Amino acid sequence: MKEREEENIISLYPEEQKQLDKEWHKSIPAQVFLNYFFAINYHLNHYEGMGLHQLAYFREVPDELGEQDVEAVKRLLLNSWSTEYALRATAELGDDSYIRNALHWTFPQAYYAVFASLQAFLHTRQVKTNSEALVMREAGRLVVKNAYPQAMSFYASGHYDDFNVNRLPLAHYKPGLQIANKELEAQAQIGQFLRTTRRMKAKAVRQQVQANPATAIRSSRNGEILQKFGPQHWQQLTWRIGYTTLFDLLARLRISNSHREIERFVQADIDFKLFHQSLLEIVSYLNGIHECYVAQAMGLQRYDEFVEQLPAYLQGSFVEARLQDKVKPLLHDGDNRMRTAA
Questions:
Q1: Using alpha carbons only, how large is the chain's radius of gyration in Å?
Q2: Rounded Cα–Cα distance for residues 205 and 201 (Å)
Q3: DSSP character for 324?
């Protein structure tokens, strides 16, 4: 049975639906969304695969950055870190009610903290754009190209309602409504999230294409703009969708742009602290990867000096912690391997 979008997620579980009371009924969409991001975090923490230091792409040292590019990358990283700082500040307040109502800004903060660090990474690879569509398309290409650790290299591809979930061997299992406590359940939930997100992307692309008379797909019989699509019509749009990756899943957090939608989450009976913690750990994981790439491109010494000169609110923060725990060990280890090989 094909999945439907999360706004109709209750229909995915007809048996459970009959057993749930009215209040839990209202919480299902929010619970499923929490399940998805918890599953992603679980998978990132438990999946054993190649890390960044083992990737051929990471060992391809990029061209040296000019001063103008270095300054642009610094600005992007500062945007990312400031947004992550705000996201973390919410968690430090620790009040469950506050975290619940903070979803209005923590959802987009989680997304844009990663988006800015992704832009910084892409800038070191001479991809310089503020276009969200171009950034996301390039990110998808890099995921498929194995520029990221295996734990997050999964993606969906294929035509509408004929999707393939790649690099998640257990994604074909049907997920339940519980929080993932094993890899099978985590992959099943991520697989469903990828498929529903890709379906929504496809529908959005169709709406955009069909709204423009110059690009609209028309009936071969009467030349009118098509209102109903068959498989052959969807296939004409697939190239516009690109790949669906973890970055597209994070983009779903912009749900808070719709006041009605976020209110449904705020009123739900779910573990908001767990949701917030899952988002924080995903953001830290992705930003740490991008920081390793940026430090490699800038040179470790220059990157270290940049971190030392950060504004007071970022001094001695998570930025410094990731530099010491992730960036320096990785780059020092890489230098040692190259010297040994020489």
A1: 21
A2: 6
A3: I
Residue carrying the six token digits 């990283």: 77
Q: What one-character-per-residue DSSP string does 80-129 give?
A: HHHHHHHHHHHHHH--HHHHHHTHHHHHHHHHHHHHHHHHHHHHHTT---
The answer to whether the beta carbons of residues 226 and 219 sit under 8 Å apart is yes
Partners of residue 244 on adjacent β-strands = 156
What token pair was written down for 113? 């903290």
Torsion region of 220: left, alpha or beta (phi above 0 gives left; psi -120 to 50 gives alpha)? alpha
| Three-class SS of 185-212 | HHHHHHHHHHHHHHHHHHHHHHHHHHCC
Q: How far apart are CA 106 and CA 256, in angstroms?
A: 9
Structure pTM?
0.89
Low-confidence ranges of the chain (pLDDT < 50): 1-2, 4-21, 24, 256, 336-342
**For residue 59, what is the enclosing H or E element?**
helix 56-59
Percentage of the chain modeled with pLDDT above 70: 87
Cα–Cα distance measured from residue 249 to residue 18, given in angstroms and rounded to the nearest whole number? 29
Partner residues linked to 165 by β-bridges: 156
Query: What one-letter code names the amino acid at 147?
Result: A
Whole-angstrom distance, CA of residue 110 vs CA of residue 283: 6
Cα separation, 204 vs 240, in Å, equals: 11
Q: Which residue spans within the chain are E strands per DSSP?
A: 155-159, 162-166
Give CA–CA dist 86/171, Å, rounded: 34
